[in-house]
What does this fold into?
Amino acid sequence: MARPIRFKNAIYDSAVRLFGEKGLTQTGIREIAKVAGVSEAALYRHWKGKRELAWDIFKHGLEELHAAMTEQVPREGPFCNAVLTTVRIFFEAYDRNPQLFGYLLLSQHELWKVKPDSLKDPVAFWFDLLRSRASEFQLDETLQSDVLGPVTLGMMLQPSIAAAYNSVPVPLAQHIESVSAAICRVLGVPWTPNSACSGQ
It folds into this structure.
């Protein structure tokens, strides 16, 4: 069993790298197989083609991030703890695999457009969390509540884009607290994370 699993992982890793570097349209099955060091036949044993492989990676990646958030992000208590945990999950995911993180959350606009509502994802989780706790926010009067999701999500994602261009030092984990505090300031919630969340 170890060999098929190893081959499947190699195909996953190669596809993520190539999709990130060249885009979905410009990447072919033959190239993925070559970079993975497997035959095209081996790839087709797991997936019908490139689109199915791309969707499989996308679906499972989003589900894993959503599951981590569901398990770890506190629904009660100071909202800064929820912010801190969410930023930690995002930044640690980037540090583990920047290419996969970019594939899931930065580059695959085509797949996001066709994603069914039934597919659980970290973006919907964050937006739902904001809506459920909105009564606690002391917002700047110029900031509309309906843009809070995109604005604060952008604050979590932009550092990963900057890191890819070497304008923000990595690992991103070193910036968890500063970015979390900035998001809390935007939302108008106190920045008083507990020691368990802040790692102190």
